[in-house]
Design brief:
By secondary structure, the protein is mainly alpha-helical. Helix content is 90%, strand content 0%. Helix 1 (5-71) packs parallel to helix 3. The chain starts with a helix and ends with a helix.
Length: 294
């Protein structure tokens, strides 16, 4: 009340537009969030698997290569083995650094630093075995095998643990994305229900706001068509319908005054006509008297 109908319509349509924007924005935000999370997960997970696989294959080759150095006497084969071991040592260090860059929690970093040292120690033991075998000190080289076996068991167990952690991380990310998707769906459903309810309420409101003031205006139109100017429209709204009602009432008053003035003028004309008729009658009698006398 007190606002024009156009202002009310603008406000209501603006409210629906805001709700539509919120619904679309929530959907886009959720999709973008899931998309970014999936990309980050895919990149991190792919790198982690690559680092673990390369570490596993590199450390396993170095471990087995260290044992082959004890059993082979072919210099060419030994050089080939140590060349590959040297490449693996450099690759293992890169893989360790790469995997460490993926870790964010301090406890994970500490556990990684503690257990990854076994891989580095295997590489050092293999190099020592190669040095002793080249020097012909087989007894010293063989004494390192037990320690190398122990370190290999530790590194293999840890790499298996990393694979399990990576699988757990994958499950966590998937569940997180599912939770995000569920939250988005619930939010969209809530906004959709809210928009639907508001649309229904707005429709009911507009129907009452428009149809209620139209009834007396239509009634006035019917009365005017039957030449009935006796009743004014009683609308107290201050919107466009109130202005129309005021204008129609003013027009009805003007018509009423015109008709009243017309009736007054007609009555005066009739009176003048009667007086003129009497005058003419008197004149005619006088003429008759004059004619009779002559």
């Amino acid at each position: 009340k007190g606002k024009s109908l156009s202002t009310t319509l603008t406000l209501l349509l603006g409210l629906l537009l805001i709700l539509s924007i919120l619904t679309s924005g929530s959907a886009l935000w959720g999709i973008n969030n899931i998309n970014n999370s999936s990309k980050s997960f895919y990149t991190t997970n792919t790198k982690a698997i690559m680092y673990i696989n390369n570490l596993s294959s590199g450390s396993t080759y170095n471990y087995l290569g260290g044992k082959l150095l004890l059993s082979t006497t072919n210099a060419q084969e030994r050089n080939k083995i140590i060349d590959q071991i040297t490449l693996n040592i450099d690759s293992n260090q890169k893989m360790l650094d790469g995997y460490a860059s993926l870790l964010t929690y301090p406890e994970d970093i500490a556990a990684f630093n503690e257990n990854s040292s076994s891989i580095i120690e295997i590489d050092k033991l293999v190099q020592e075995i190669y040095t002793y075998t080249n020097e012909g000190n087989m007894a010293k080289a063989k004494s390192l095998v037990e320690e190398m076996d122990s370190k290999f068991e530790v590194s293999s167990a840890y790499l298996s643990t990393l694979i399990g952690q990576n699988n757990s991380f994958t499950e966590i990310i998937i569940n997180r994305n599912l939770d995000t998707a569920s939250t988005i769906i619930r939010s969209l459903l809530a906004l959709t229900v809210l928009t639907t309810v508001l649309s229904i309420l707005i429709s009911i409101y507009l129907n009452r706001r428009i149809s209620k003031p139209l009834k007396p205006i239509l009634a006035l139109s019917d009365r005017l068509s039957n030449y009935d100017l006796s009743t004014d429209i009683n609308l107290k709204t201050q919107d466009e319908f109130g202005l129309i009602a005021t204008s129609l009432n003013n027009a009805q008053h003007i018509l009423r005054d015109l008709l009243k003035n017309s009736l007054t003028n007609i009555a005066q004309v009739n009176k003048y006509s009667e007086n003129l008729a009497i005058s003419l009658s008197d004149t005619t009698v006088q003429f008759d008297i004059i004619n009779d006398s002559t």
